Amino acid sequence: MAAPELPPPPEGPKALGALLAAVAQVAFPGSAEGPPRGQPRHEAPPDALRDKMGALLQSIASADMDSNQLEAFLTAQTKKQGGITSDQAAVIAKFWKKNRTKIHESLISQSRWDNVLKNMNWRVDLKSQSRHIDQINTPVAIVEMEIGKSGQESEFLCLEFDETKVSQMLKKLSEIEESMTLLTQST
Fold first, then answer.
1. Cα three-residue angle 1-10-83, rounded to 5 degrees
2. What is the reported pTM?
3. Distance from the CA of 83 to the CA of which of 35, 50, 93, 166 falls in 20 to 30 A?
C-alpha cells in the first residue's frame, strides 16, 4: 500500500502572513502578533520556505529598509532564480510596513547589554542648611536620573553638584563632544 500523500503547504496571503509573524516572533521577540485566536492552524510550512522567509526578514530588518529600498529588494528577489513570487513580495511588503517599528525596537533591545537612561530631571536649589555657615545660600544643582532596562523596574539616582563640580562636569562633557566630533569627521 502506498504512503498517503501529504497535503500541500498552505498557500495564500493569510498563510504567508502567519508564517512571517511566526518567523519574526522567533527572530525579533515581541515584534509581531501571531495568528488571531480562533483562526485554524495550518500544516507546518516546509523548512525551505520558513528558512527563506527568515533570511529575507533578517536582510530587510538588518538594513532597516524604507519603502523604496524594500521595493527594490523585493523586485530583485522576484527576478532571482529560486526567489519569491510577486504575490509573496506583496505580502512581505505589507508585513514589513505593519511591523517595521516593532522589529526595529526589538533589535535595539536585543543589542543593549546594560541599563539605559530612561529619564533625567534637574533643578538648581539654594542650600538652606549646612554644617558650615559659609555654604548657606549657595546654589546646588540637583540631578535625578531614572535608569533601567525596558520592561523592568527602574532605579533612581539623585546627584548633587556644587558650582565647582558643575564646571568640572561641563568641561568633561566638552572633551567628550570634541572626541566624538573628531571621530565622526575622520570616518
1. 110
2. 0.54
3. 35
